[in-house]
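Revision sheet: structure tokens.
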Amino acid sequence: MAGRGSGQHVLDEVGGAWGAALGPCPGAQQCRGGGESASDAVFRELRELVEAVSPAIGLFEGYARFMEVVHGSHTLGSRLGFLQHEVLVDLDRTLREETGADEDDTLPTLVAGQLSWVHGTLMGRIAQRMLEGAEPGPASREALVLLDDMEAVLGEQVLKYAVRDA
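Predicted:
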């Protein structure tokens, strides 16, 4: 079983943090409130993690070494890829359930893909900056700007999809 300081633990925390915005409330940092869309919840949760300089999204001293280990391990690299795919599938399923979308409806899949892009782009940029030797605080501030930019390029159909009843 993976220990608290292991790479597996960090990978599991990343998946848990991502699911907290949309998944069931038990264990989540915050539940999605009434009137909040799926993307609002994802952006809120990611901003909270970035502002907190959370290790769950790679903002910690030693992250560069951690990523070297991940890249050098087929098992951890595969687990990370599987986790990303699992999050996308779970998000698609959650959006379908919440909106009552038919199996033929592609919109939940497209919205899930866009929100997964936001998450992946944020994580990739944080990883890049930490590998370049950035300190967690400045990398966090840069990540907040990136989140704002990504939110600005998404259209209303994504931003206002799956709004919870008030």
